[in-house]
């Protein structure tokens, strides 16, 4: 909703709002998202905010917004923001701490994960109605045979691997996740490679699965 559509003579209009009263998604008491948009405050115009709270190793799943660009601003804690540049076919990752931000261009595939407990980030969008395609929906709604045929994969293995994804995840891993603890311990003991810093005031992500880090 643009500001020109708002009747500022309306005595019912509000100019202040408590995001704690507007929940977008809840995983548990430590991982949840609040929202502020024109539905909550008509005077806001073409802007939408998601107030994201995460504990360590939790994150917002891979997704993209086809109608908005996004700024991710770190308020507390630490998070790694990753995105794929669809033009260069490169994966970029940025470790951000308080007062640092990352911009996600419209339509880019991205995700972010908390590196510390009590991580708090604010995501800001240039639209009043955010449209999102979640990775979990792509995985659970696309028939396994389509993945198998398109990428020459074993359909039975795909079906088995994707079977636990029953709903839209948003904050992962899902609260009913039963990954083997021994496997997690093994991963934690792996010494990750180092990557050059994208900018001297930022901190390079150091995960083994990241094949590329920006220069």
From TrEMBL:
Residues 17-159 form the Cupin type-1 domain. CDD domains: cupin_OxDC-like. InterPro entries: Cupin_1, RmlC-like_jellyroll, RmlC_Cupin_sf. SUPFAM superfamilies: RmlC-like cupins. Pfam families: Cupin_1. This is Cupin domain-containing protein.
């Amino acid at each position: 909703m643009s500001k020109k559509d708002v009747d500022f003579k309306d005595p019912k209009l509000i100019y202040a709002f408590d995001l704690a009263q507007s929940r977008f998604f809840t995983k548990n008491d430590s991982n949840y998202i609040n929202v502020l948009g024109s539905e909550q405050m008509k005077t806001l115009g073409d802007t939408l905010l998601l107030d994201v709270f995460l504990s360590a190793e939790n994150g917002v799943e891979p997704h993209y917004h086809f109608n908005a660009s996004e700024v991710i601003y770190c308020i507390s804690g630490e998070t790694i923001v990753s995105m794929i540049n669809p033009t260069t076919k490169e994966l970029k990752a940025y470790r951000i701490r308080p007062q640092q931000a990352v911009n996600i261009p419209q339509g880019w595939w991205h995700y972010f994960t908390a590196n510390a407990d009590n991580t708090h980030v604010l995501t800001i969008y240039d639209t009043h109605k955010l449209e999102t395609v979640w990775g979990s929906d792509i995985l659970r709604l696309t028939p396994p045979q389509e993945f198998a045929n398109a990428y020459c994969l074993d359909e039975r293995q795909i079906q088995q691997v994707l079977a636990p994804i029953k709903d839209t995840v948003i904050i992962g891993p899902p609260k009913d996740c039963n990954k083997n603890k021994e496997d997690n311990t093994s991963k934690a003991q792996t010494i990750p490679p180092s990557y050059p810093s994208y900018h001297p005031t930022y901190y390079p992500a150091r995960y083994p699965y990241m094949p590329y880090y920006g220069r």
